[in-house]
Amino acid sequence: MPTITINNRQVDVEAGMTVLNVAKEIKINIPTLCHNQGLEPYGGCRLCVVEIKAGGRPGLSTSCTLKATDGLVVETDSERVKKSRRLTMELLLARSPNVPIIQTLALEQGVTDTRFSKEDNDCILCGQCIRMCKERMGVSAIGIFNRGSNRVVSTPFDEFSEVCRKCGACASVCPTGCIDISKLSDKEPNYLSSDWNEGLMPRKPIYIPFPQAVPKLPVIDTTACVHLNTGACGVCADTCVAKAIDFEQEDEIVTLDVGSIIVATGFDVMDPTPMESYGYSKFANVITNLEFERLSNATGPTSGKILLKDPDDKWGHTNPPQSVAFLHCIGSRDKNYHEYCSRTCCMYALKMAHLVKDKCGHETQVYNFYIDMRCFGKGYEEFYRRIQDEGVRMIRGKAVEVTDKAEDSSEEGLLIVRAEDTLTGKVLRVPVEMVVLCTAMEARSDAQEVARTLGLSLSADGFFMEEHPKLEPVSTPTSGVFLAGACQGPKDIPDSVAQAKAAASEAQSLSTLGKVVVLPMISYIDKDLCIGCQVCIDLCPYGAIEFDDLKGISVVNEAVCKGCGSCAGYCPSGAAGIRHFTQKQIFGEIEGILAS
Amino acid sequence: MSDEFEPTIVAFLCNWCTFTAADLAGSSRLSYPQNVKIIRMMCSGMVDPIYVLKAFLDGADGVFIGGCWPGDCHYINGNLKARRRVALVTEILKQFGIEEDRFWLRWVAASDGVMFRELSKEMTEKLKELGPNPLKVNKMIA
C-alpha cells in the first residue's frame, strides 16, 4: 500500500487514487471547478493545483490528475499554491464576472477584483458537459470548437444536433448553469416531475420518493434511466461510495401467507381538468388543494412560501398572492360528478385560508366560496369562528366559473371568480390572483380490481362497502379482510386513524384467539342417500369434498366447506344439503309464502 | 280493495348481493311491491331446480333468482352454476306451459338497492300482464 504525505501528514492510500481524492478522504479542502467524481480527470480549471515537494517532479501539479504514488510529498496550501490559485481566480473572474460560483470561489481565495479586462462569458470551458456527453452518455453531441481565445462549447456547425437525446446531463453538471438545452436540439425534452410534489418540481431519474420515505432509499425510474435504456451513463453506480446501486435488480412479487388482510388503499384525487369552467390546467394560478399543500410545505418547491406560479416558466414561482379564492365542493355534492360530500374540504380550506393570512400577510384578501360549511368535529366550529375573525370572507354560493376576461380595468390581469351569493341574492365577480380548487376525494381507479381479488363489494359511489353500516363498520363480507381509511369512503385523518386502529385490533383478535369462527351453514352429505356419482366433487369450488373409496360415497370436509351449496343445488340423489337451508326448510318457506 | 290481479313472486336471493340489496332498499326506505316474497339463500348456486318447480306447483305466479354479477360471486362461481341451471329449468317449465317470462334470473350488486326495487316493480308489472300461473288457470293444481 503506497504512503504519501499531505501537509506533513502521512496517509496510507489505495493504489491508483488521485491526490485530490486522498485529500477529500482526509477532509482537506481543495477547490475545484472542472472535477466531477463520475468523469475522467481533466485538469482544465487549474484550481486544484498542489505543490510537489518530493517523490515526483517538484513544482505545481493539478491534484485531480496527480496519482498518489509511494513517497510523494505534497502541500495543498503553500504560498506558491495560493498564489497560483489567486491568479487562476482572477483570470476566471475576468472571463465570467457575473457567475455566482466564480464570485464565491474568488472570495474564498481572497480575490475581490481582477487586474484583467472583464468579459461577460458564463462558460468557463471546464469541459464537464462535453465529458459527460461523451464518456457517460456515449453521444458526443457537443464539443469544443475553434482555437485559443475563440474556443466555445457547441454542437457541430452550431446546428441542432441529431444525436442529442436532450437528456439534460450536460446542463446538470455545468457548474455555472450556462447551458440552454433548447439550443442543442429541437427534440422535446422529457421533463420528469416529482409526483410527490404534484408535478411542481423537477426530479431526476434516480430519486428518493419523498423526504420521509421509509426506507429512505433512492429508486430508479426505469423508463427514464439512461443506463437502463441505452447502457450508457451509470454515473450513480460509479460515484456511490457504498456501492449500493444494482441495475440488475428487478421488481419482485412476494407471496405471503397471512391470517388477515387490512385494505387501506386510500383514494384518488379528482382531476378537475374536465370541468373546463374552472380553467384548471388553462390558467397557471388555478391550482388544486394538493398543489397548494405542497406549496405551503417546507420541503415543497418553494420551501414553504406560498407563491404564484410563473406562467412562462414550468418550474418557476413569482410573488406571494395578494388575493386568493378557495372554491369548495369541486366535484363533490354535484350530480354531474359525485353526489357525496368529500367531508374534508371545508376544514382544510379553512386551514389553508389561515395559512395564506399567516404566510402572505394579513392584508391578503381570502375568499371561500361554499355551499354549506360542515364544521362537525371536535373544535371545528371554534376554528371556523377564528378564521372568520381573521378576516377571511365567506361567500355562500358555489363558484360557477373562473375566467380571465376582464370587464373593467380593476379586473385586468386577474382571475375572476363568478358566483351567486345566495345570502344576498347577488351575482358576484371577485377578481383574485390565485384560485384553489377543493377537489373531490374519489374511489381509486383500481378499486374494482381489488374488490374482485379480495371478494369485496363496492357501494354505488365506488368505495369499498363495509359488512354493515352501523354494526360492522370495519369488516367485510370476506372473513379476515378489514377496511381502514378513505378506501371505504371519504374521511379525514382522525377518522382514518380510528378505523385503522379498529381494523388492526380486529385482525389481532383473530390471531390472538388462534381460532376462527366458521358459519354453521355448511354442507352435509347423507351417507345413506349418496350414490357416489362424484359430481359434487367437481362442482365444489373449494375442494372441500373428497371421495371415500372404502364406502363408495362422497364426504364433506367441514373445515374447508364455505357453505355455498353448489353441491346441494345439483345432487341427483338429494344426499347433499346445506345445514339450516335444508330442503324441508325451504319447502316450508315456499308453502308458507304461497299459503297466504 | 281492487279486483286487480296481484301476482305472487317467490324470490330466491343470494345472501351476499341481492338479499343485501333488498335489505339496503328496506333500510333506505325504498318501497317495492309486496308481491315479492323473499327466501334467503347463501348463493344463487344453491337454488335446487326442485325449489323452483315446487314454487310453481304450489301456485306461485313467478320465480325470481337474484345473484351476484359474474366475477363477483362470494363463492367464486356459484352464480355461473345458477345461470346454467336456470337455462335448463326454463326449458322444463316451458313444457309445463309456464312462460319464460315468469322465471327470472338477474344480477344485482349488494349496493344496488335501487336496482332491486326497479326489478321488483318490473317483474310485478310483467306478471300482471301475463295473468295468473297457467297451472292454476287450467286447474291442473289447486
Topology, pairings included?
The complex is a heterodimer of chains A (596) and B (142).
Chain A: E1 3-6, E2 9-12, H1 19-25, E3 49-54, E4 59-62, E5 73-75, H2 79-95, H3 100-108, H4 128-136, E6 143-145, E7 152-154, H5 169-173, E8 206-207, E9 219-220, H6 226-230, H7 235-239, E10 261-263, E11 267-269, E12 286-288, H8 289-295, E13 323-330, H9 345-360, E14 365-370, H10 380-389, E15 393-396, E16 399-403, E17 415-421, E18 426-432, E19 434-439, E20 441-443, H11 447-454, E21 481-483, H12 493-513, E22 523-525, H13 535-539, E23 545-548, E24 553-556, H14 566-570, E25 576-578, H15 583-595
Parallel strand pairs in A: 1-5, 10-21, 12-19, 13-14, 13-19, 14-15
Antiparallel strand pairs in A: 1-2, 3-4, 3-5, 6-7, 8-9, 11-20, 16-17, 17-18, 22-25, 23-24
Chain B: E1 9-14, H1 18-27, E2 36-41, H2 49-57, E3 62-67, H3 78-95, E4 103-107, H4 113-130, H5 134-137
Parallel strand pairs in B: 1-2, 1-3, 3-4
> What is the multimeric organization of the chains shown?
heterodimer
Class from helix and strand fractions of chain B: alpha/beta
CATH architecture of chain B: 3-Layer(aba) Sandwich
Radius of gyration of chain B: 15 Å
Strand order of the largest sheet of chain A: 2-1-5-3-4
Largest sheet of chain B: 4 strands, parallel
